Inverse folding.
């Protein structure tokens, strides 16, 4: 468990244990996630999607549950749909991609497609 905690601390540029402690308190199941098959690929995906480490760190600090979401079933398909709908992939959009229920996401996507079509 200690290597996982050190990896999180190093990867998210946390200088002390306070941030790590807060994340674990918000999402204790994080301790059961694999670095190689879950945490690292999800963080890499987030950085690739919005491009700025600082924004990703803020998102993870505020919403650590994102690290537990499925890349293949939730995050990647929604990012692909958002790009296809010409959504600007910023921090707010990424949070909608990650945190929205299926119904909320479908509604956001339809609204974007209607907005894009009327331009």
């Amino acid at each position: 468990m200690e290597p996982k905690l050190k990896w999180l601390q190093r990867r998210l540029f946390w200088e002390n244990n306070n941030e790590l402690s807060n994340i674990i308190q918000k999402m204790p199941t994080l301790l059961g996630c694999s670095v190689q098959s879950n945490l690292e690929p999800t963080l890499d995906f987030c950085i690739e999607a919005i491009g700025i480490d600082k924004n990703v760190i803020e998102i993870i600090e505020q919403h650590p549950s994102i690290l537990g979401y499925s890349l293949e079933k939730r995050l990647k398909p929604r990012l692909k749909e958002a790009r296809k709908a010409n959504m600007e992939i910023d921090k707010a959009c990424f949070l909608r991609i990650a945190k929205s229920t299926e119904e909320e996401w479908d509604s956001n996507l339809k609204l974007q497609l209607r907005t894009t079509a009327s331009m």
